[in-house]
Design goal:
By secondary structure, the protein is an all-alpha fold. It contains four helices and no strands.
Length: 173
């Protein structure tokens, strides 16, 4: 039992650390196009790490209490404190890991949400430009102003240039 208590903080901490690095790598590897589809699962990962920390906490306390013998306090108190050490280490690792994963996930989701919003706004601007172009041509024709092919072509070229510039700004690569 003494050897188990000595190894318990290291084993439980290693499990939490491995799970943390797996979750961090998983979050970073999820492609942008699958982010929305996997968002619910990704949001569970920080809770998973903190849950592992809580499990380690209860495991450490339980093992410490099992090793405690009120008739032999000189031997029992160090064993009990070893169990508490496991409890505190795993709690700390679980909380820190969860915090880091939450920040990483929030950043990735906010970056993607911002990108989705910019793309949607750009598409709306391009659609508005095309609508305005068509409305302008119709208004000019109905007013009796005959547009030459050169004027129409020049307007279309300007609109395409604006749309291209917006597209390059939003998608530089």
């Amino acid at each position: 039992m003494d050897k188990t208590l000595e190894l318990l903080p290291y084993i439980s901490s290693a499990v939490i650390i491995l799970a943390f690095f797996w979750a961090l790598a998983y979050i970073r590897r999820v492609p942008s196009d699958q982010l929305k589809h996997k968002q619910n699962w990704l949001e569970q990962l920080p809770s998973l790490i903190s849950t592992l920390g809580v499990i380690g906490t209860f495991l450490g306390i339980t093992v410490g209490l099992i090793a405690f013998n009120s008739h032999d306090l000189d031997k029992s108190i160090p064993l009990f404190l070893d169990g508490l050490r496991t409890a505190f280490f795993t709690s700390l690792l679980g909380m820190i890991g969860s915090l880091i994963l939450n920040r990483t996930l929030s950043k990735k989701l906010s970056d993607e949400t911002e990108s989705w919003g910019i793309e949607k706004a750009t598409q709306s601007i391009i659609e508005a430009l095309n609508t305005n172009h068509n409305t302008l041509i119709k208004a000019m024709n109905s007013a009796g102003y005959k547009t030459s092919a050169d004027n129409v072509s020049e307007i279309k070229t300007m609109i395409k240039g604006i749309a291209s510039d917006l597209s390059q700004i939003l998608h530089p690569y």
